[in-house]
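Reopening: structure tokens for the zinc ion complex, inputs below.
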Amino acid sequence: MIKDREKHTVGLVAIGRIPEMVLKVISGHILGYLNLPTCCLPAQGLPQACLDEKRLQYDAGKIIQHLESCAFADCTKILGLVEADLFVPIFTHVLGEAQQGGDHAVISLSRLQYRNNGTRSSEAEFYERSAKVALHELGHLFNLFHCRDSHCLMHFSGTIETLDAIELNYCPACRNFLDGPRRPALASIGPDG
Ligand SMILES: [Zn+2]
Ligand SMILES: [Zn+2]
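Re-run output (same inputs, fresh job):
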């Protein structure tokens, strides 16, 4: 487990209407998979300055900047959960975005509630996907990069299909990295899924 875990508390910020059960599920997975405590920070509305009015999506990078500008006491890593769809300029959408080796990440729940054919997913599918995207972005905050193992949580996934194909677990190499002394933070890897 993460060596300096006692230094980290993950703050969860609901941005928009986020079901309380999702917060609980993500919190439980962060404790179970990373052995880190979480705290639920005050919920926020969607920051309209982050809305791209042409795309009618929210800019993931701007949401991260917005989270950086908020002073969250007692939390060293911040995960924003957004009800709306997110994008970065070169992608049609992203499921999440994180500062590589940094402190702020964001995930969108918008697409996690639907199957490829547009029908609504079960709650169990929705919760599992939410946990996967959250643990993936937190992996980036702890400086894990994308993994070639197509079953690993750190494998890049930009769609529901690929997200469903990965397992709800880090591969042994990524797990070893999380358990060992971590590399110093490197430059951001940019757009993410
Ligand atoms: Zn891996
Ligand atoms: Zn990623």
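Residues 147, 149, 152, 154, 170-171, 173-174 surround zinc ion (ligand 1) (CB under 6 Å). The domain at 5-179 is CATH 3.40.390.10 (Collagenase (Catalytic Domain)). Marking as resolved unless the reporter disagrees.
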